[in-house]
Each structure stands twice: as C-alpha cells, then as structure tokens.
Design brief:
The complex is a heterodimer. By secondary structure, chain A is of the alpha/beta class. Chain A contains 11 helices and 14 strands. Chain A starts with a strand and ends with a helix.
Chain lengths: 310, 245
C-alpha cells in the first residue's frame, strides 16, 4: 500500500500580472518522501513553496498540505512544517543559541526539552562549541547548517528546503548535503526540496519533478526518469565534424547528435545499435578512441527537458 | 496568544540590546537623552522640575524620540536582513507578530522614561540638599508614566505602520522622524495663527478644566490615536503582501 499524500495540488496556478509563475501544477507527494523540485532560476519553485506554506494565495486550482487547504488553513500547515527558504533567515546579531531559542519558543518547546533539542541538533553539525557566537561572524556554510537545524527544531512532519546549498562552495555544499541526508533520515521527515543542483537531487531525492516556466514537465523516481529517456553514447576521438553529425542524424534510432568539447554525444532510441554508427564515423575519416554508452544522468534528462520544451 | 506576543517581544529585546557597530551612534543619542531629561533639565529647573504641573506634559512626547529608532527597524529591518519571510513562515499568528513588536518598543520607551523620571528625582534632591526629600505630587506620579505609556504606544503603532511598508530601515526612520517633528511643531505653530478670540476661548477652557482635566483630555486623545493606529496596523498586515514586498 502506498503512503498517503502529504502534499496534493490540483491545477495550482499563481499569476503575477501577465506572468504565470505557477501554471496548472498537479502533484501528489507521498509521506516519507524526499521530493526534489527541479527547475532553472525563475521556474516557479519558490512561488510553489510560498503557495504550499499558505503564504501566497493561488489564483487558480487548489492545494492541500498535511491534509489542510492552503487557502483556509495556512496557519495549521505552518504549525506542522519547517522551512529553510531562499535566505537563511537567521538573526545575525544574535547567537546561534538565541536564534534556536527564539524559534523553540515560537514552537512552544520549553525548559529542558529546548536545551536538549538544541544540543541534539547542533552537536552532529559541529556547531555546539560555537553556539554562543553571533551568527553574523559565521561562514555561509555554517549559517546554512544552523538554518537547517532551526527548520528541524520542532520535529516537523514536513520540511521545505529552498535551494539549501545555493551559494556555498563545493566542499561546504557537499558537507551540508551529507549532513542533510543523515538528519532527514534520522528525523523521518518528508522533504520538499527545490534545487537546480542535479547531483544534489540525485543523491537526496526518492522522487523528483521538473518544472519550467511554472509548468510541470516530468515527475517520477530519478531512475524512472533516466530510463524514460534515450540511451546516451559518448564517442571520444579526433577528426569529428559537422558533416559526420549530419550523417549520424540521418540514421534510424539517432534522436540527437551533438559535438561537445570535441566529443560526439549521441542520444539513441532503445533499438539503436552503436557499432554501425561508429563505423560510419570511421568511414567518414574520424578516429575513434573510446565509446561509452549509458542511460545518462539526471542532468541529461533535465537538460533534454529544458531544450525540448519551449 | 500572550505567550506568542511575549516570544516576539523577547526576540526584539535581544536584538535591541545586541546592537553594536553602526548602532553605536544610537546608543550615544540614548545616553544624551537620558542625560538631558534625567540630569541637565532637572538641574536647570531645580525644585520646579518636581513641583511644576506643566512638566508632566513633557513625558508624553519624550518616548516619541526614544522609540522611533527601535520601532523603525521592526519590519523594515527584518525585510532588509532577509529574516521576515522565515518569521512569516512560522506558526506565529499575524497579531502576535505585530503586538510583540509593538510591546517591545513600548516597553523600551516606557522603561527608559521611568529610569529618567527616577534619575531626575534623584538629581533634583541631590542638588536641592534641603534635608526633606522632594517627591512628585500625585498628579505627576500618575500622569507622567501614563502619558509616557500612551506616547510610547503612539510611537510604536505609528512606527510599525510605517515600517510595514518601508523598503529600508533608514527610510522608515526618516518618515517617522518627519512625522514626529510635524506632530510636535504643527500644533504649536497652529495655535499661533489662530484668531485671538479662539485663543482666548481655549485659554478660558483650559483654566476651567484645570491641569488635571487637561491631563485626562491629553491622555484620552492619545489613547484614541493609539487605538486607531493599532487598528490600521492590523488591517495593513498582510502576510502575502509582506512576502512579495
């Protein structure tokens, strides 16, 4: 039996003047999922989070989150959710402990439970020893970790993370990603994660949706999405040119042929054989050194979707 | 609800007392004001400072100067420092956020006035060295804190209203300062240009109701303005609009 939907949207739409930031979004997110919401900048990811938190009213359609209608019961949704939004939202003049104490008080966590919870969250993130320092003195990576701790403070059923690793250097991003994965698993929380970092999505998410200009393009498990796309062949060598690409494009089973950094990258239909295509390249004067064939990454799926859709 | 209001006020206070760096100028102004109203003016006035019925009216507008800078930061500061959306995404009800910010500002302004009053009483007594301890008459002891509370309420409600829409703290503070200056000088200048017959009538009316009556009229008017501004702030607080701002 599948888990009940924690988020359900039906034709969810939000316009700003003539711009449709979210356009007829239909989603069903089961409880216990780490759901990745992927899209380029300006795709409508942040607006969707704001709609789901009941901070913005939809102009069309509807959404229920945790069983509450976003229009009527935004307060109940926010009561049971945690959020790390576009900005970390920390009070930089205050210490880490004060920041967490404030939000613990907001969620009515008092006394010893508050102190124990703060310690339980800060220690594994390596922030406990520095809890008395004003947050303004911290690095961006540390602030993001603290913001994650704040979002999990009240043990929410649902956690919204809006590009949590954006703006971090690769090391800090990888560290946060690892810690986020561990924390989310430990807390058993459903996560709605927006990102345009596809490695992050592939590492953390059990289901992903791809959105562009407010419209949903694809949704499913990352492996399902990869399997639904063409096979990818990458041919390394020398002497490749546009004429070869034109020949390749004319062959049955070749969905796409491109030159990328001196390599030929082919997208092939399931039935297509690679060997005759390699032969064609050799006959045309190309020198083939290596052929790699795989199903492609989530990034390939994402880029293909972005190119296909107007 | 009360717990939520106190939580927001707690956070505001923590932030207010963690000020440093660029806010040191604000601290200097604060010390200067405490010095003027707690030491300098009482020294100049002597026993009059405690006994004159007119001084009670000072205390209605002293909080306006104290609360302005703190309350300008309330929403504009959160917006400027990108903390507002996270606060709005929490479980706190709209009214708790608004009232918590107002409470923090009122408590700050009113608390400082009480400190100034106590300091001024001490200054006058030390300077007088009369042997007998000079005390505020009952009218002053009740009226000054009451007017100070209502004055702080005026600054807090007006300040929050301005701060809700101001894009920056600086702009909120400027708008608020202009408003406070107009509030102080327009009535004073307005009275000057009134026809003599009106002035005479107002003088007669003032004499008729006396200082006590005037105190209650002033308190009533301030309370009415405070409540109107509070209602306006409630009406103007819209989560969706604040998120999009």
């Amino acid at each position: 039996m599948s888990a009940p939907a924690i988020i359900r949207t039906e034709g969810l739409t939000r316009t700003f003047g003539s711009v449709r930031a979210v356009d007829g979004l239909d989603l069903e997110i089961p409880s216990g999922t780490v759901f990745g919401f992927l899209g380029p900048n300006g795709a409508g990811k942040t607006t969707t989070i704001r709609l789901l938190l009941g901070l913005l009213e939809p102009t069309g359609g509807r959404a229920t989150v945790l069983g509450f209608d976003t229009r009527a019961d935004g307060g109940s949704i926010r009561e049971q959710s945690g959020a790390l939004l576009e900005h970390h939202g920390l009070y930089e003049r205050l210490s880490a402990e004060d920041n967490l104490t404030f939000y613990a008080r907001v969620w009515r966590i008092g006394g010893e439970a508050r102190a124990a919870r703060i310690r339980a969250l800060l220690q594994p993130l390596g922030l406990w020893e520095r809890r008395g320092e004003p947050v303004g003195r911290w690095s961006r990576g540390m602030k993001q970790k603290l913001a994650v701790a704040r979002a999990l403070l009240h043990k929410p059923s649902l956690l919204f993370l809006d590009e949590p690793t954006a703006g971090l250097d690769p090391v800090a991003a990888a560290t946060l990603r690892d810690e986020l994965g561990t924390l989310v698993q430990r807390e058993g929380v459903t996560v709605f994660l927006t990102t345009h970092n596809l490695v992050e999505a592939e590492r953390l998410c059990s289901r992903v949706a791809v959105i562009k200009q407010g419209r949903l393009l694809a949704v499913g498990h990352p492996d399902e999405l990869k399997a639904s796309r063409a096979t990818r062949a990458e041919i390394t060598g020398r002497g490749f040119n546009e004429a070869m690409l034109a020949l390749l494009r004319g062959r049955p089973g070749v969905v796409r042929a491109q030159l990328q950094n001196g390599r030929i990258v082919l997208e092939l239909a399931e039935s297509a054989e690679t060997a005759p295509l390699v032969g064609l390249i050799v006959q045309s004067g190309g020198l083939v050194e290596e052929v790699r064939k795989d199903k492609g990454s989530l990034e390939d799926v994402f880029l293909t979707l972005m190119e296909e859709e107007p | 609800m009360i717990g939520d209001v106190l939580t927001v006020a707690w956070k505001e206070w923590r932030e207010l007392f963690q000020l440093g760096g660029s806010h040191r100028g604000g601290r200097f102004s604060l010390v200067l004001l405490i010095g003027v109203f707690g030491v300098f003016l009482p020294l100049q006035s002597g026993a009059e400072w405690v006994q004159s019925p007119a001084t009670v009216f000072y205390w209605g507008w002293v909080p306006l100067m104290l609360v302005g800078s703190a309350v300008a930061d309330s929403f504009a500061g959160e917006r400027e420092r990108h903390t507002l959306e996270t606060l709005l995404a929490s479980r706190l009800p709209d009214r708790a956020i608004l009232l918590g910010k107002m409470l923090a500002a009122v408590a700050y302004g009113w608390g400082l006035v009480i400190v100034m009053l106590a300091l001024s009483l001490l200054t006058v007594n030390i300077a007088a060295r009369s042997g007998a301890w000079l005390m505020f008459p009952w009218r002053f002891a009740v009226g000054a804190p009451l007017l100070a509370l209502l004055g702080a309420g005026l600054a807090a409600t007006a300040g929050v209203l301005v701060s809700l829409r101001a894009p920056t703290v600086r702009q909120a503070a400027q708008t608020l300062n202009v408003g406070i200056l107009l509030l102080m000088f327009v009535p004073a200048l307005g009275i000057q240009v009134l026809p003599e017959s009106w002035k005479a009538q107002m003088g007669a009316w003032t004499l008729a109701i006396g200082i006590d009556g005037l105190l209650w009229v002033a308190a009533g008017l301030l309370a009415l303005v405070d409540l109107s501004l509070l209602a306006a702030a409630f009406a103007r607080f819209r989560r969706a609009r604040l998120v999009l701002d």
